[in-house]
Amino acid sequence: MKYNFNDIEKKWQDYWAKNETFKASNNSDKPKYYVLDMFPYPSGAGLHVGHPLGYIASDIYARYKRHKGFNVLHPQGYDSFGLPAEQYAIQTGQHPAVTTEANIKTYRRQLDQIGFSFDWSREVRTSNPEYYKWTQWIFIQLFESWYNYDSNKAEPIDTLIERFNVEGNTNINAACDDDINPFTAEEWNAFSDTEKQRILLKYRLTYLAETEVNWCPALGTVLANDEIVNGVSERGGHPVIRKKMTQWSMRISAYAERLLQGLDTIDWTDALKDIQKNWIGKSVGASVKFKVLSPTLSEGKGVDKVPGYMTGGNNSHLLIERAKEMRANPTDAEAALWAQLKGKKLGVKFRQQHLIGDYIVDFVCLDKKLIVEVDGKIHDYQIEADEERTVRLENDYYKVIRFKNEEVLGDIDSVLIKIEEALAQRESINSKQVLSSGKDLGWEIEVFTTRPDTIFGVSFMTLAPEHELVSQITTAEQKAEVEAYIEATAKRSERDRMADVKTISGVFTGTYAEHPFTKEPIPIWIGDYVLASYGTGAVMAVPCGDQRDYDFAKHFNIPIPNIFEGVDISEEAFASKDNVKIANSDFLNGLNYKQATKKAIEALEKIGQGEGKTNYRLRDAVFSRQRYWGEPFPVYYKDGMPQMIDEKHLPLTLPEVEKYLPTEEGEPPLGRADVWAWDTNTNSVCHSELVSESNGFYPLELNTMPGWAGSSWYFFRYMEEQSNRGEAFATEGALKYWENVDLYIGGSEHATGHLLYSRFWVKFLYDRGFVGVDEPFKKLINQGMILGTSAFVYRRLSYVKLEGYGLTRWHPIKHKPIFESYRDTLEVGVTFKDSSLEKEILDWIKQELPLLHHNKLIEIFGNDPLIIDLLNPMSNEEIIEFLNEKIEFQYQSLHADISHLKTIGEGSNIKYTDELIVEEFKNWRPEYKNAEFICSDNKFLTLREVEKMSKSKFNVVNPDEICEQYGADSLRLYEMFLGPLEQYKPWNTAGITGVHGFLKKLWKLYVPFMDGSLSEVEVEPTKDNLKTLHKTIKKVEEDIENFSFNTSVSTFMIAVNELTAQKCTSRHILEPLLVLVSPYAPHIAEELWEQLGHKASISTAPFPKFEEKYLVESSKNYPISFNGKMRFTLELPLDMSKDEIEKAVLAYDKTQEQLQGRTPKKVIVVPGKIVNIVG
RNA sequence: GCAGGAAUGGCGAAAUGGUAAACGCACUCGAUUUAGAAUCGAGAGACUGGGAGUUCGAAUCUCUCUUCCUGUACCA
């Protein structure tokens, strides 16, 4: 009787599929249990051994729960919209639906072969129109909702409109855009429909807004913050730039507080909760307004007040004469334009030939910082190029628009319209002054602080260099320095700033703010340690309580007042909030952090210069993607305003396009669709060319939804049976029965994406009464990743090093690829010189160069004029001479596919070595065909390193082979046996024979039942049999409940070893044992269960009941320790009292031997555990 | 920098404050076998990263240092 795992596994997989063994019921007397795996994306590479880890764990749990009498929902499906299929479509022209379908087939085959107990009747795919109909429906609900902070939940937008109708918006406490203007009910009712829509958009939970987004040109799409890793795209590693675009956004920030609070109600790991907490980034504190003092008020500390129109720089005294001269002699175009601009003809004041910094601009509106330039004459006195000057001016927040002489003279009307448009987009400086209550200049700086208690410790303020007030408050004296600083910091990339956090830099603006309580002047600095994007872009610096402020103050010799009682701040700031009293702080003296914070906020509120405030780091989520393969928005545009398609006309299905690329105009791929407009007459999609608002044909939205749209609610869809899915995303009964996911297993990489967004959507659906739970996943476990061992080959690259123009440049030399066998002295990314290697390269170039060498040079060095123009005029000899000593080298490491490595052993013991099979590697890529391989000892070695298992790293191990060789049960057991579920572990098949051997041994225990060698008489279990069984039941049950699957595999091994030694043939032992094993190794369990004579599947057989009585012992082999060290053991009855044990132990020979006549000081007796003798 | 986690044989790992190293791989020897594989049996091997403390007793609790991993990035 051999254990034919392949046949057995096939047999039971077919049986389960045919009998729908794991189909969940929506009507059951059993308690419910919902086990879910994180939604897989069906990639073209199929499953590798890392993927099933979590699936096996959840499957064990699901099967265990069935044995425990639960009605288990354990579904699976596919997050089938996504980038890879689209990238593939762009490359090959294959429709993403086709490749996705093929990928799903592979996935399904592989999943089936591992024997998962999924209820496939409930499968969902996000790319199915019957599914995304409801994704679109949820989007519409979000659009039709606003967030009311008073009731603290989302409400239908109609309730907001009603309130606008009767009271305007001044009393509304809503999550909304920042730029809301107050209006009364009368004003609201007078607004046009379009205007009303525009305003409502600022309140809706999903809204259109111009946002700065992470644009990835290579992928042609926008990426979310969490899709960017180290400044490049997570998928593909392409560069990402900031770009302004009109996008759909989700007002997730409205839910920041509830997303944070909700974490306390769910059973997730602390690590995961911490990640979400950090991402939400709540800080409680106060917003404080500091009045900006005019320099004259600062009593000699500032400089004389400069009139607002004097915007010239330090050279004004020289330039002003030229400006006057130019005003007197305008060109025709300038004169014509000036006639139209002067005297506030456009509603704003323009000045002509005006000094801005060191420039003279043609026309400027200072209030709106708009400069109008008329080109066409030579500015002989002006050396800088116009472009550079524009950049400098725009750094100062001026907007520069240019016109040509001909434009002004030929069509002055359109020039004026353009100027008016530009003016309309500019904010007025004066309008800000109206809002403020500053004493003199009328400006205020608002800051956010988490430490309002330290307000008396403020000795300066720091603004981000990008802060809008900087250019306005900077005094003439400081102007040059401030401008230089802004320019310098603008050049520093984000990465530079990050890498270099130690350098302290900043500049004084020359202006002072007024302390709200002491009225002392506080110098205002700018510094790039303050981020424009967080809070208000300004901080009140408290150097004694904040290390960065402290460092800044030390560096620039700014006073550091100490406001903490009895704290030494001579070396560093005191940043703790605990155990300290405030001092030198007027009315806050003697208070602790909490009391002082409260009192300071009260005082600020009293004088109207601040209030308690909570800040969140969480930003609204961009929801648009410029992609084809995603859910279309159910949106068309009327008067530029988005309109929702009525839900009864959903789904709005994805149209066909001939190509999956953006259009020539840069529109998303849907812009290519011929049939992509909305006909409001028939409520259906119509030909794009028909668009005409008067006839009711409107353009449809061209963006599609991001990947997280479909995955934010799929767990509800599983609750509904296929047949009822038409009427709702899930019926009320189904939602009520299944509630939410009891156990969710997946990787921690989804911590800030999927897991946060789904919580947001669920809370929203809950608010609007569509679901009855406000958290999707009650318990969540992160499985660790299985790592692969990659192989790296080292490629030697050659460069020409040229110096000049103050820069060093390395020009790559394009010779055939050269690979070197790995040795530990090879370093990646470091350039070095080597004369013999250089000679080789020079010889090669010499040989390559023909007499007319221009084209060849381009072939070798690339078409870069910096080097080609340099070398081309030289003769061949001169070129070689010139290049001498200028060649440098560098190593680059590349992934080789591990299948190109030599193997040792065969069959089950096959192992990859470090050695590369050069011929296979050469044939892998056409560009390696002629590559040179430098071996050592006739071997070409790779560097093996453990990293994430991934197709792109060519280190994947496919589970198919394991299944074929050892069977799915062995794979399942082995993956669990590798170690704790959450741990990261490299894949190594070395131990798989161990678990496979265990299964064979298990099988052997049952052979007597199969080969007829067992007599018909039932064998009664022995005491030992029962002890082994019940010990195992207890341990396995505990282990599964604790998700400690590795230890239960050991427990099975121990049980089988013991039962084999006991020669157990009792059905009363072997039957329950199968049920214990069944969640882990279901195929063998089913087969043996059947062999024991059962007709029904083992899957719902009751889990054996643990009975303590079989483990009860009458005696215990007590470890006897002396001073905590165990010396020997002594068998004593368990019913002995403490005193009796002590007596018995002390009377024992060995005890006396150990004591050697000493009297023990103390004897510790823990009955049933241990005896410890001290002395 | 901050937050979280980890460190036990050659390897993966186990151990409610109570006999440290279970279980598996690899290794050695023996049996069976023409040989190998498979199977069976036997065996060798780590005193828990370093230091201190609490305790009758510490892998486990506290402090500290070292190394590694993960997350996050000047968050006011």
Write structural notes for this entry.
- This protein is an alpha+beta fold and 1175 residues long.
- The protein folds into seven domains: 156 residues, HUPs (Rossmann fold, 3-Layer(aba) Sandwich), CATH 3.40.50; 202 residues, no CATH class; 108 residues, VSR Endonuclease (Endonuclease, Chain A); 162 residues, Isoleucyl-tRNA Synthetase, domain 2; 119 residues, no CATH class; 144 residues, Isoleucyl-tRNA Synthetase, Domain 1; 60 residues, Ubiquitin-like (UB roll) (Roll), CATH 3.10.20.
- It is built from 39 helices and 41 strands.
- Strands 11, 16, 17, 18, 19, 20 and 21 form a seven-stranded mixed beta sheet that branches. Strands 30, 31, 32, 35, 36 and 37 form a six-stranded mixed beta sheet that branches. It has a four-stranded parallel beta sheet with strand order 2-1-28-29, covered by helices on one side.
- α13 links the parallel β14 and β15.
- α31 packs across α32, α32 packs across α35 and α34 runs antiparallel to α35.
- The structure holds one RNA strand of 76 nucleotides.
Which range best describes the helical content: under 10%, 10-25%, 25-40%, 40-55%, 55-70% or over 70%?
25-40%
Question: From the structure provided, what is the oligomeric state, counting identical versus distinct chains?
Answer: single chain
- Strand percentage lies at 15-25%
Globally, the shape reads globular
Question: Describe the biggest sheet?
Answer: 7 strands, mixed
Report the structural category: alpha+beta
